[in-house]
Amino acid sequence: MISKYKGLVVEFINESNYELGSTDNINIYDAIYSDGNYNYQTKHGINVSENDKKVSSALLVGNGGGITVHENSFVIKNDDIFICCSEMVYSLKLPKLTLNWYKAIDQATNFEIYTFKDDFIIHGEMSIFRITANSEIKWEFSARDIFVNLNSHKEFEIIGEQIKLVDFQNYEYIIDENGNVISDRLLK
Predict the structure, then answer these.
(1) Cα angle value 17/21/27 (rounded, 5°)
(2) Cβ proximity of 121 and 163 under 8 Å
(3) What is the sign, positive or negative, of the torsion defined by CA atoms of 4, 8, 75, 138?
(4) Rounded to 5 degrees, what are φ and ψ at 116?
(5) pTM higher than 0.85, yes or no?
(6) Strand partners, 101
């Protein structure tokens, strides 16, 4: 997946076949960021280039549930990349991809990240979070079950200043910008 930002081309790569410590990997990264655990389920590569010339690269790893790079798995804001990588969320400074911070947010998997006012909303498997750009968790919302749904209901949607959620048991929740429940009902 390619994103363009202030003259930079930022490429996000699913690196499911990357083997840490191997010399047979297709891509080589300038930096590898992890929490030190070696049971990695998710690996994302990032390459930054400018005028067709490589500027930097990094590999991010996570231990929780597997997630691939997709349109809503990262946000670029104020020269920083915020990206979900399994249970971790990483913040990297552009263009060199230096590590600002990383933090385990959802205990299983972070599916998506969205800008929300001056903060971010994280759609996790177990919970929904509002975090600051410095990784402070402002609030967490959990429901009866996980935020995965097999009945064709959209699991997560931001509508203005409200967030609509559907859990595994088909309960729909509307929460406000502070994580408080506005409505809670069983869908048919």
Answers:
(1) 50
(2) yes
(3) negative
(4) -150, 105
(5) yes
(6) 91
Measured CA to CA, the distance from residue 6 to residue 178 in angstroms comes to 32
CA distance 45 to 47: 7
What tens digit of pLDDT does each residue of 57-79 get?
999 998 877 889 999 999 999 99
The whole-angstrom separation of Cα 67 and Cα 16 is 10
How many angstroms separate the CA atoms of 163 and 132, rounded? Answer: 17
**Which among 42, 61, 44, 34 is positioned nearest to 10, based on CA atoms?**
44
Give me 37's structure tokens.
């655990």
Helices and strands counted in the chain (H then E): 0, 17
Q: How many CB atoms lie within 10 A of CB 115?
A: 14
Amino acid at site 52: D
**Where along the chain do its domains lie?**
2-105
Q: Around 148, how many Cα atoms within 13 Å sit in the side-chain half-sphere?
A: 9
Model pLDDT for residues 109-130, shown as the tens digit of each residue: 999 999 999 999 999 999 999 9
CA dihedral (82, 84, 90, 93) positive or negative = negative
Across the strands, what pairs with 57? 47
What does the alpha-carbon distance between residue 107 and residue 11 come to, in Å, rounded to a whole number?
Answer: 27
